[in-house]
Amino acid sequence: MPDLPVPELLELDRRHVWHPYGPMPGRVEPLVVEAASGVRLRLADGSGELVDGMASWWSAIHGYNHPVLNEAAREQLGRMSHVMFGGLTHEPAVRLAKLLVDMSPDGLEHVFLADSGSVSVEVAVKMCLQYWRSLGRTGKQRLLTWRGGYHGDTWQPMSVCDPEGGMHELWSGVLPRQVFVDAPPAEYEEAYAESLRAAIAEHADELAAVIVEPVVQGAGGMRFHSPAYLRVLREACDAHDVLLVFDEIATGFGRTGALFAAEHAAVAPDVMCVGKALTGGYLTMAATLCTARVADGISRGEVPVLAHGPTFMGNPLAASVACASIELLLGQDWLAEVKRIEAGLREGLAPARDLPGVRDVRVLGAIGVVQLDHAVDMKAATDAAVREGVWLRPFRDLIYTMPPYVTGDGDVARIARAVCAAAREG
Ligand code: PMP
């Protein structure tokens, strides 16, 4: 099907295509993928296939070209690929909302279907700010979060990303001014918990919500922390009239060894964002869930609607694939698969501990991370992984993998070898 010769395609790409986080015109030559199936990406230059250690930015949990997801998309395409969602509804969206409510932590009852993780965080923030305005507590319009987080690339999410040395530092003077506390330590420390309580108490009058990535801070640094901090947040938020938002966009749908990372602590947020693996990485969709308390509060306001409704909200094609993806996940022993990958990564990444320049090796669920004591040489590290037949996308001082759950043992071992090779050469 693609009949542009690869060199010509790359030249046009360099001239015209703006890649995520890329300069314009592009300086780094990307690999051209012509097809993907299972856990393998097939390259257009004829050099063969790569095992995908990234699951397309952590979303393709069932792998590519999956017959069940293909069929859901095909079937829905024959009905309608899109229809406006204002004043109309459809079965894929309704079924998806019900599935999400049933599988999510207790109390989350209402679902806003957005088209990307960043937008689902925008919606979450809007919900929280509007909730307090509706109740007449107009001073409560700020957010508290911990440093080292990442919540997306649109305006409000950027304001709660890591403010120091993070991707959005450029905008630090103009973004909404939020309250930052230190990132949580890996293990539970009472002194840190106390500092969290104190910060929430101190800023309670101006805080609409606390927003955090539970258990794993992803794109901000691939750090893991004790789930016990989530209970501390829940209690402090309840004590001081502050809403609690969990951004489960990276952690949701089993990635950490629980369906949602909040389950590790048995706490439920007031608002929860999901995305990435929601459609098994097939289509662009995310969701913001909230409790009846939040929805009722908003509907009691002077403006009793959530004023958010861009054109492609509630897309039926994406919703239909999301339903199939969730049913596929829940219909299998997904935990056994995630644990199997966890065991494979623990074993395969252990040798990285002895490599020079390696600061830390950590594994949780289907997430494996090697942290260096220096900034990674992206090109050298990526090339080393490609030579091992694996696709990785290192950043900052991190080489990591979040593979599809269908990655077989041999391929998990291969990914781990590639991570070690990248750590050695990057
Ligand atoms: N929140 C978290 C925790 C994420 O990991 C990401 C994406 N890396 C986002 C939000 C933004 O999602 P999206 O890229 O779909 O806009």
TrEMBL record:
Pathway this chain belongs to: Cofactor biosynthesis; biotin biosynthesis; 7,8-diaminononanoate from 8-amino-7-oxononanoate (SAM route): step 1/1
SUPFAM superfamilies: PLP-dependent transferases
Binding site for pyridoxal 5'-phosphate: 117-118, 247, 310-311
Enzyme Commission number(s): 2.6.1.62
UniProt-listed Pfam families: Aminotran_3
Chain positions found as N6-(pyridoxal phosphate)lysine: 276
Record carries keyword Transferase: yes
Reactions catalysed according to its record: (8S)-8-amino-7-oxononanoate + S-adenosyl-L-methionine = S-adenosyl-4-methylsulfanyl-2-oxobutanoate + (7R,8S)-7,8-diammoniononanoate
Domain of life assignment: Bacteria
Site (Participates in the substrate recognition with KAPA and in a stacking interaction with the adenine ring of SAM) residue list: 21
Cofactors: pyridoxal 5'-phosphate
Binding site for substrate: 57, 150, 276, 309, 393
Class of this enzyme: transferase
Subunit: Homodimer.
Similarity section: Belongs to the class-III pyridoxal-phosphate-dependent aminotransferase family. BioA subfamily.
HAMAP family: BioA
Purpose of the protein: Catalyzes the transfer of the alpha-amino group from S-adenosyl-L-methionine (SAM) to 7-keto-8-aminopelargonic acid (KAPA) to form 7,8-diaminopelargonic acid (DAPA). It is the only aminotransferase known to utilize SAM as an amino donor.
Name of the protein: Adenosylmethionine-8-amino-7-oxononanoate aminotransferase
Source taxonomy: Bacteria, Bacillati, Actinomycetota, Actinomycetes, Kitasatosporales
